[in-house]
Amino acid sequence: MTPFGTTISPYPFCLDLMGAVQVSAEELVRLAVAKVKRGSLVYTDRFKSYDGLVSYGFRHKRIDHGKRFANGKVYINGIEGFWSYAKGRLLQHHGVSVERFPLYLKELEWRYNHREEDLFELLLEVLREYSRVANNG
């Protein structure tokens, strides 16, 4: 399973989980085409698989992680912020099962996107809404 993260400012971080361990360049570009409006400016690291983005109508800027995470207005700190947050949280568990790893990542996506809010109240609202739907369905 390969996680594919996007953040479209000012919107929250979005995580897609793909089945393959190794993902082809074509699959990465297909996801970008499906998730991002053509003509958008896309910031990535220097991973070679992103080379085809320009031919699909995206404007593309790269950041070399070895040198810095920003270059003027070009930055990938939103994505890096999520992965730093996720790694820190996952380390607390001293490893997670392969079967449950996607669930942990999706939970962390939700927590990250709501990190400035009262998570308990948000969770109660989700449960209330689920209860309304379940009782009316």
UniProtKB/TrEMBL annotation:
<protein>
    <recommendedName>
        <fullName>ISXO2-like transposase domain-containing protein</fullName>
    </recommendedName>
</protein>
<dbReference type="Pfam" id="PF12762">
    <property type="entry name" value="DDE_Tnp_IS1595"/>
</dbReference>
<feature type="domain" description="ISXO2-like transposase">
    <location>
        <begin position="3"/>
        <end position="113"/>
    </location>
</feature>
<dbReference type="InterPro" id="IPR024445">
    <property type="entry name" value="Tnp_ISXO2-like"/>
</dbReference>
<dbReference type="InterPro" id="IPR053164">
    <property type="entry name" value="IS1016-like_transposase"/>
</dbReference>
